[in-house]
Amino acid sequence: MSITSKINTTIKLTFLAAGLFTANLIYAAENTIKIGVLHSLSGSMAISESTLKDTLLMLVEEQNKKGGVLGKQIEAVVVDPASNWSLFAEKSRDLLAKDKVSAVFGCWTSVSRKSVLPIFEELNGILFYPVQYEGEESSKNIFYTGAAPNQQAIPAVDYLQKEFNIERWVLVGTDYVYPRTTNKILETYLKDHYGVKDSDIMINYTPFSHSDWQSIIADIKKFGLAGKKTAVISTINGDANVPFYKELSNQGISADQLPVIAFSVGEEELSGIDTAPLVGHLASWNYFQSIDNDLNSEFINNWHAFTKSDKRVTNDPMEATYIGFNMWVKAVEKAGTDDTTAVQNALIGVTVPNLTGSYAVMMPNHHITKPIMIGEIQDDGQFEVVYKSAGTIVGDEWSDYLPGSKSMIADWRTPLVCGKYDVSKKVCLKD
Amino acid sequence: MRRMILICLLWMITNLATAALPDQFAQRLAKGSLTEKQQLINEMIKENDASIQPLFTALVEGNLYWLDTNSTLAIKQDNQFINWSNKQVIDLPKNQFKRITINNNIRQLVAQYQLQIKLSSNTIPTRRNAAKALFGHIQSPSQINIIVERLALEQDSEVKQRLLEALAFAKLENCQQNECLVLLTQLSNVTNPIFVQKLQQMTSIEGSQIVKEKAQSLLDKLTQKKAMYEKTEQVYFGISLGAVLVLAAIGLAITFGVMGVINMAHGELIMIGAYTTYVMQQLLPNYPGIALILSVPAAFLVCGAVGMLIEISVIRYLYGRPLETLLATFGISLLLQQLFRTLFSPLNKAIITPSWMQGSIQVNDFLSLTINRLYVIGFSLTIFIVLLLIMKKTSLGLNVRAISMNPLMARCLGVKASWVNALTFGLGSGIAGLAGVALSQITNVGPNLGQNYIIDSFMVVVFGGVGNLWGTLIAGLTLGLANKFLEPITGAMLAKIMVLISLVLFIQKRPRGLFPQRGRAVEG
Amino acid sequence: MLTKYFNQDNGRYVLFCLTLLVIYLVMANLFFPTNSLFYVGNQTIILVSKYLCYALLALSVDLVWGYLGILSLGHGAFFALGGYMMGMYLSVQGENGSTTLPEFASFINWQNLPWYWMGADNFLSTLLLVMLIPGLVAFIFGYMTFRSRVSGVYLSIITQALTFALMLAFQRNEMGFGGDNGLTNFKYLLGFSITSNGMRVMLLLITLIVVVISYLICYQLIKSKLGKVIIAIRDAEARVRFVGYRVENVKLAVFTFSAVLAGIAGALYVPQVGIITPIEFLPLNSIEIVVWVAVGGRATLYGAIVGAFLVNYCKSLFTVWFPDEWLFALGLLFVLVTLFLPKGIVGLLKLTHSKKPQLKPQEASL
Fold first, then answer.
1. What does UniProt give as the signal peptide span (chain B) (predicted)?
2. What is the pTM of this model?
3. What residues in A contact C324, CB-CB < 8 Å?
4. ipTM of the modeled complex
5. Which CATH number does the domain A153-262 belong to among 3.40.50.2300, 3.30.2170.10, 3.40.50.790, 2.60.370.10?
6. Mutation target vs A (from C310, C319, C322, C356; most A CBs, 10 A cutoff)
């Protein structure tokens, strides 16, 4: 091969590669508004996240039938970050920079949110995050439509205490940041508010996907069935739940002896378990499929029609997605444009109905108001609501029960515009 | 005799009086708040009326419904709704009925009440269980009275003993020195954890020194016993975890250990086995137990067929290039995962555990053995023995061993290598499928099932020594036991890390596992 | 002269193409206005940088697997360790070179940094640690392993156990590395904003230079006398030992060097991706690295680079084009490449571009 031809090939190859990398030359038609869908469709998180992708596609389809937003059709750009946190970062950058989406709906795990957060801040995007999480964060670019600990964990403890006079507490969770933080908050809360002694709190952590619960449940049994009324608070994540509940029922622990209240077990998780032995165990959420009202039945019917299966269930993160999407639509209409900054400003104060008969308001700390509900597992895999808070509660991003964040607040309105404002020192620690 | 008549009479009177009871209560039971319901049920329990027993049973089991249009209660039986007041079948669509909901407090209330009822049951075992369950749950004086009454009627000595113990414990709450000592002597054979807790409390609070000493001596005895049984329990947990590991790994011991194929798709074959169970249960919706038994051969055949397909289409071309098999099977594992995600959705599937596999055998207060784990242990050992026999006693086994030792020579001697290889891989895969059936009883059935077991499986095979079935068995059990003995000390997370690190160190000491293969074939 | 340069080795040709591509991207990014047809966005710069880091990682795996015959299923661990060292440095960087507490400190009530974060506040010591820590772990691991002559699958499986154990350890919150959320929210590197355009371009260029230099070092290593011994060990370890070479020392040296390369790759990767989490230790990731090498072509060095680029580029595209089905495509790619292209993609290139006899990658004993 001669040198000229070799160099020719080189240059050709290089330009070919360069062309491939600059595939953003093909612009989409201008009469659509794009939103990004950033949920894992493969890998370990697909089990939870793929449902939210379908939810969004359904919401987009409905909104488009109603005429879209600002007279334009909405186009959903779906990507698969494959449960890989660095891929989350890559995909979010693509969505914001290449596809120029006006908002992104996505993430499930805290770590995936943490990995995309710097990118949303750098490129000034909007992310709607639909899952309950540990708090201790507020970003100008993220809108948290899931529950903060005060909207889920603390009311659950209050309920158990009031209803069953619990004296002993077992906090069991997967070893990662959400359970660790939630349990720390709960521990402080139990000691401060109910005077629970150290010897009456048992804390246990397990690895992800832990499948052998024999000895832990035996320990819980010994701890819990020793005369004092005991409850288990479970922050066990994902697929470790099925073996946990199976072992629980096999070791003969029934809900009336030792109730388990879970923060990560919803209708969808239950659809993978035979729930007959679990009747009476509890979960704390802000939405249950069994809530009886018109909006919810319409949502469920649409979902069944969209998935072409009336066996598919709805759950809390789906409602959070629903709220987030509607808030975005409303904010865009309010701002009259899909420009990010304008929508960000318009979002604060936006009020949309939730699926449980009340209203969700986007607060200045980018968290929303939510009612709190506690449900009991039924043998058909649904929850029966046994407690519902009187009104809605505002999400508290910086927990009052952690020493480091007691005096912090977030407020994204002018003049404060701060995600971590120390009220006592009157300084903004992060903007 | 006189008493009998009196009771009969009483029963008849109450029965007459409560014929109308549900109608008064029904509305409140159906419409009231949970607190109202609780009060109501308390009232009903005070009435102590045997005729509304079925109502309670239905209520607790979630079979009690309310029909608003007729304002009647209905009990669901075999998918039919039966009117509570006139016992007629109501032929109305299902969605007209609304289930009467209860919470744990009500459940507990009814359960306590039902215990009392069970005390007067005709069968002795029921009475025994009820009497035993009463321990530590007697609070009110009225309850004590009921027990005392019952004691007078009771014939069975064991039930009597249990009731006396329960009473003694209830009295322990406020007793004087001598009385306490008597009570403690009565309770000296009790092993109930509630009693242990009470003893601990007694030894730590202010009180008479003699009573304290007595309590302490009882406590010491109990603690000793408890420690012993706890060790036994740990061994059981260890063995059952070990059995799971052996199950997951034993198929790999064939495909990887004997054939030398680094089969990364092994986990997915387990997953297919688990999905087979799911499909079988869908095909026979009313017989989950039979479906589970049938899925054993079905999973073996399905996974065996898939395994043979993989062997014939891919692995066949890669013999002698073991690392390439790793890559190809890794690709296959991705393909299979995605295939099942597309076919069955990414969500987990619910597998019903048949009733004969639920619950546990209560040996005593300190030790209970979960039944599903017993089945898994048995299943695992059976598979191991059958596999061992196949490898040692059949001509297939002989051929397989011949090929793994010296493929060229084996071929020269007329062994149809390609066919034997396909069969062997099918066998290993089929056994992976069997593992899937067993695992479906203890863990999730979803597309990621295999991922959770693949690393553990490789560890077990390598720890035991590649190519040695006994090694796999011993290694699996050892890892299981090590895990379970470390867990209480270090927590589950550190236990796992420590086991992994000791495994790495062990391989340094014995580079070819517990039972190294010997001979020339090793260096190949 | 150019002809001579290229004819020495296909790898230089690959690197030349790569350099041209990077120069083009940098030019297009810096000198074209953002609305121009030729403008290249930041995301492309970051993407190519990321691929280059993967390429370096693949190179390090090819060195031990392709030439030394050690199939390491735990190289992701060294990559992640290097990444963590860099992540620790980045997470304590405040404005104007000051140091702050990492973000997760508030979760576990840290008032100041524990001893093992020592050195994280200084860039130079971090650079040292980036190479030292993965190197040290590899050295200790290799020292024990090679001395006791663990080989073949046993070695592969315990490297997997190593990375698995490290993953579990780093997931623990008490370890003090941010638990499952890892280290993130980096702002400054050497006092410059990490998100600025200039920094991105700079990092891309540095990564390219590191890859080129590493390649050349590896290439020289293989071509040297030591290289012959390395290949000999792969092909007939016992014979080399009988001839009188200390096989374990050679293995240990190459393994450690390779781990250092992987660590550097990790350190370059973290500031560009912006997060480092325990998931990087996932055994599956390490297998994937091996797959890149196999797809590219084993025992060629440049094959690893090609493979890393190709597989990851496919992954980036497929996850957007067919988000629901892309695993089919990827899985199929792996199967087809192993079945029909045993020498990888560069096996094809070799046929077309060079008639010179090549190193024959022989089957290593496992």
1. 1-19
2. 0.87
3. 41, 80
4. 0.85
5. 3.40.50.2300
6. C319
